[in-house]
Write a structure and sequence with these properties.
Helix content is about 25%, strand content about 10%. By secondary structure, it is α+β, with helices and mostly antiparallel strands. The strands form 2 sheets. The chain has a 4-stranded antiparallel β-sheet with strand order 3-4-5-6, with helices on one face. It is globular, with a radius of gyration of 22 Å.
């Protein structure tokens, strides 16, 4: 998942010709029910869209070199005869914005295009095909330890996903240390079943805020920051506050993207992605936003006691997160979501769901 400027190898400069940002329903979309960062975004211009598509193409080109490295690793492992007893985990740390909810680049949002990531796992005992697991990035370390036959330390927030990937009838196929740890972890599911929600947490990285006026002049269409995360766009060096340092396609030259904030004071949140057939529609994205959260509160884990905004999306009826239904949802569902949220924040180690 390369960041900007996403400069590819020269040999791939002509690749990914038809790649563009996916024109999903949330592309170039905002509306009521969103926090300030999203609600205030102006529509994407024609130049914006060209540059966003070129960023998408550059990202594709850059990933081709990752494919090359992966192929070389596979060849090396096969050459020493370790292919059949090696676990492979391929994933990313986040998604990416490419014009979705009008954010031209980067990540930071609670929505699926920014936080939902694929994971491909291969190895002894894992059957081919789709096997969805409600995991998070904190589960990787416990999973790798379990592969080595090591128990998850009590201070770790995550859990090994091998219990979700390897069926009991395949345990005989895996190395003994892994099998023994898997059996121990599987037994633990009786007292503590696998989670029904993913937890997300993000603290904005600064910039102008009405809560802390910084006394710096704001220039129209430039969003000049005084501190913290700089604004940006999918643009080129002809712009003072752009997010791409080197254009790589001739058509980029002379284009001017709209400079807009990629992050701001309103974008501090905790959230849940819920998959639970016993709750309402069974699929929800729930978020609580607190616009001011001090460093001391962050360290002490006692933010989010003064919520400025709530978001709730029914991911069955609204998979692209267009309509905030918080104010029209049954209070019993809202109470349950809030209760589950507080089980994750501020949990630590084995106390986490």
């Amino acid at each position: 998942c390369p960041h900007t400027p996403a400069i590819p190898s020269i040999k791939y400069n002509e690749s990914c010709v038809n790649v563009t940002s996916p024109r999903l329903p949330n592309y170039n979309f905002t509306g009521p029910g969103f926090h300030q960062l999203v609600a205030s975004q102006p529509p994407l211009t024609h130049d914006d869209e060209i540059l966003i598509d070129d960023l998408a193409r550059r990202r594709c080109q850059t990933l081709l070199s990752v494919d090359d490295a992966h192929a070389e690793l596979i060849a090396a492992v096969k050459s020493i005869g370790a292919w059949d007893n090696t676990y492979w985990v391929i994933s990313s740390d986040h998604g990416y914005n490419l014009g979705h909810h009008r954010i031209p680049s980067n990540k930071f949002l609670l929505y699926d295009h920014a936080v939902r990531i694929p994971a491909v796992v291969r190895g002894p005992g894992i059957k081919p095909g789709s096997n969805p697991v409600l995991g998070t990035n904190v589960d990787y370390a416990p999973t790798w330890l379990a592969m080595a036959g090591i128990a998850t330390p009590a201070t770790y927030d995550g859990r090994s996903i091998l219990t979700q990937l390897i069926p009991q009838d395949a345990e005989a196929e895996i190395p003994e240390p892994t099998r023994l740890q898997l059996q121990s972890d599987r037994a633990g599911l009786v007292a503590k079943p696998w989670r029904t929600e993913q937890f997300h947490q993000y603290y904005n990285q600064g910039g102008p805020s009405p809560y802390y006026p910084q006394g710096c002049e704001q220039v129209p269409n430039e969003f000049m920051p005084c501190e913290g995360w700089a604004p940006g766009s999918s643009t080129n060096p002809t712009q003072k506050a752009g997010d791409l340092s080197e254009p790589r396609f001739p058509r980029d030259m002379g284009l001017m993207a709209t400079v807009r904030p990629l992050d701001d004071y309103s974008n501090t949140y905790i959230g849940l992605n819920v998959i639970d057939s016993t709750l309402g529609s069974g699929r929800y994205k729930y978020g609580e936003y607190q616009y001011v959260c001090t460093t001391d509160q962050i360290i002490a884990k006692n933010c989010f006691g003064d919520i400025q905004m709530y978001q709730l999306f029914d991911l069955v009826a609204d998979p692209y997160e267009l309509n905030n239904i918080y104010n029209s949802t049954d209070t019993a569902i809202l109470k349950e979501l809030a209760t589950r949220m507080r089980a994750h924040y501020p949990c630590q180690g084995v106390a986490c769901p």
